[in-house]
Specification:
By secondary structure, the protein is an alpha/beta fold. Helices cover about 30% and strands about 25% of the residues. The strands form two sheets. It has a seven-stranded mixed β-sheet with strand order 3-5-4-6-7-8-9, sandwiched between helices. Strands 1-2 form a two-stranded antiparallel ribbon.
């Protein structure tokens, strides 16, 4: 995999994409939280590894509540990425590889823990990490994408909308308006 530079002075980063066996999945502790005042039954995941992850994280409960989520998980490399104003982390090829493995493992575990619940995933991460994690999840043949909403941010409407990449994903959708500023 190759992550191309997006800013002047950055270098491209490369990493291999080997098949991971379930027994070799690395451990990363996703933080689990209940969404107060939620009437929904879905499970939510926020992957915060990119610029503006902090904006979503600050208002995660309102975003998840709007998406009908009762329990949310946050996956990030560190709290610094989630709380720094518009920080854009730059990862090496090895870090991208490790992050893709960690995210794959954590998404796999969350889906295993909640096999019958709808999953709503808001992801702010490098495209190569998203591709690598998606590819790895497909290798387990466990229907990860069934009942899973992958939320895509549409900058024109400033909303998150479900995006289907597999026919097993839900066809009905909803939108979640981007929340900026104000109280959490």
């Amino acid at each position: 995999m190759v992550e191309l530079p997006t800013q002047p002075g950055e270098k491209e980063q490369q990493f291999e994409l080997p098949l991971l066996l379930e027994k070799d999945l690395p451990k990363l502790a996703a933080r689990e939280e209940l969404v107060e005042d939620s009437t929904g039954e879905r499970i939510g995941v926020h992957i915060g590894l990119a610029k503006f992850s902090d904006q979503f994280y600050k208002h995660r409960f309102r975003h998840f509540r709007a998406a009908g989520v009762r329990t949310c998980y946050t996956i990030s490399e560190s709290d610094d990425i989630l709380i720094s104003e518009n920080h854009r982390p730059v990862f090496t090829g090895e870090e991208l590889n490790q992050l893709s493995r960690l995210i794959t493992a954590e998404l796999f575990r969350i889906k295993e823990k909640h096999p019958d619940d709808e999953l709503v995933v808001f992801a702010n991460m490098p495209k190569t990490v998203a591709f690598a994690a998606g590819w790895q999840l497909m290798q387990y043949r466990r229907s990860f994408y069934q009942n899973t909403y992958l939320m895509h941010y549409d900058s024109e409407t400033e909303t998150y909308i479900p995006m289907r990449v597999r026919s097993s994903q839900p066809m009905t959708g909803f939108t979640v308006r981007q929340i900026r500023g104000g109280a959490v």
